[in-house]
Task: inverse folding
């Protein structure tokens, strides 16, 4: 493990001297201005843009799991836990990747690169977020939701960030599964278990990731090359990347339709899946025949709209239709049984109470 970490460290590019003295921009600020500036910089460590969509997938999955509106406090705690655990994982990613982030225009403005936040402070921040998330998920949601959070964190922060990203062009295919863990947190939070439906939703995010990311990597290939990150377009070329995007698109389309067979989603979702899938497939086909960056850029932008709308359609469907599958039926029986057991307990206490002359709680030994 130590040898592995050392070899990963050896692959890291040396940090370049920074153009401005790190804290020279922060120290002259006073009071509220300084607080707001630092709060914004810490928030940047969590990658808020990506975080938003991750949380949308988790939240919408809760609605599907509940077949409508989930229990309010479970929903609030599970969402907060997801925000915190994903924010923590993204912060670790930024700490680890400072050396390559400084080499790419897209990432060169990040707080750890420009020096407005020190790595040690970022690590403490990540630890606080991560620990709070695990506490919230374990004690206020349920242990399975917490386990999915921890697994997603380890998958992204360790497996993807510290190993796969710099090792193989399959990095985002294997590592992409990390981004699908919020879905499992959402489902586990509501049901306390993981059936076939959450794994299908997991597969949707998993198969969506390659066309999402490779579209971007196609027009950022020079940057990734400079940073020596082996992304698919750099290693295998644009032709292979575009072909593989089409393959994953096809798998994505199949999985979105398969979800329709579970009974947990209905017609509204299916119509959206077909229309959005047709749009995304069209984009990927245009990318395949495009010699410029034009369609790659449009496809990356559309990928984000695609996933957001697909999950929105799942939610609308669940809120509208109130699907009542075998799972919901069994859950309802379980709830009724719990209520009857509780009523029986109360009857038993009353009977014991009436059978004794003195109230049971004042009886002397
Ligand atoms: C291994 C998997 C993934 C990789 C490598 C990846 C990579 C990226 C990259 C490099 C960007 C550009 C960020 C920037 O402009 O600085 C991006 C943007 C984005 N990604 Fe992904 N992504 C992955 C998975 C996901 C997942 C699972 C989601 C959500 C479900 C997601 C949602 C987004 C969103 C919403 C943006 C736009 C962010 C913004 O405009 O601020 N990504 N992604
Ligand atoms: C439950 C749980 C904690 C799950 C983890 C979910 C998670 C944080 C997914 C992140 C996906 C993502 C931003 C990949 C890009 O990383 P990158 O390093 O390739 O992107 P960059 O170059 O912009 O830093």
Result:
């Amino acid at each position: 493990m130590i040898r592995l970490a050392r070899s990963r460290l050896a692959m890291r590019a040396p940090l370049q001297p920074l153009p401005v003295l790190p804290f020279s921009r922060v120290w002259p600020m006073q009071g509220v201005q300084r607080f707001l500036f630092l709060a914004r910089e810490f928030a940047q460590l969590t990658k808020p843009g990506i975080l938003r969509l991750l949380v949308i997938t988790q939240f919408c999955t809760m609605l599907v799991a509940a077949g409508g509106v989930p229990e309010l406090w479970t929903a609030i705690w599970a969402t907060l836990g997801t925000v915190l655990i994903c924010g923590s994982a993204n912060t670790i990613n930024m700490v680890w990747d400072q050396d390559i982030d400084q080499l790419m225009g897209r990432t060169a403005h990040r707080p750890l690169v420009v020096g407005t936040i020190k790595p040690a402070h970022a690590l403490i921040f990540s630890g606080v977020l991560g620990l709070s998330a695990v506490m919230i998920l374990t004690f206020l949601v349920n242990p399975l939701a917490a386990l999915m959070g921890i697994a997603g964190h380890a998958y992204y922060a360790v497996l993807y960030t510290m190993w796969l990203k710099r090792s193989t062009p399959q990095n985002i295919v294997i590592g992409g599964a990390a981004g699908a863990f919020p879905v499992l947190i959402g489902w586990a939070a509501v049901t306390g278990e993981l059936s076939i439906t959450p794994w299908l939703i997991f597969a949707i995010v998993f198969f969506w990731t390659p066309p999402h990311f490779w579209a971007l990597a196609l027009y950022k290939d020079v940057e990734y090359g400079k940073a020596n990150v082996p992304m698919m377009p750099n290693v295998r070329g644009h032709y292979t990347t575009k072909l593989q995007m089409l393959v994953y698109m096809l798998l994505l389309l199949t999985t979105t339709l398969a979800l329709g067979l579970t009974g947990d989603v209905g017609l509204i979702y299916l119509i959206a899946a077909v229309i959005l899938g047709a749009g995304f497939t069209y984009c990927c086909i245009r990318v395949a025949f495009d010699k410029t960056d034009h369609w790659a850029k449009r496809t990356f932008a559309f990928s984000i709209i695609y996933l957001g709308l697909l999950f929105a359609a799942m939610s609308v469907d669940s809120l509208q239709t109130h699907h009542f599958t075998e799972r919901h039926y069994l859950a309802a029986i379980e709830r009724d049984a719990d209520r009857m057991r509780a009523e029986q307990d109360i009857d038993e206490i009353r009977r014991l109470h009436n059978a004794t002359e003195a109230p049971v709680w004042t009886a002397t030994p």
Remarks:
- The CA atoms of residues 166 and 229 lie 5 Å apart.
- Confidence is low (pLDDT under 50) at residues 1-10, 17-21.
- The pocket of protoporphyrin IX containing FE (ligand 1) is lined by residues 49-50, 53-54, 57, 106, 172, 175-176, 179, 205, 209, 212-213, 216, 304, 307 (CB under 6 Å).
- Residues 326-355 form the longest helix (30 residues).
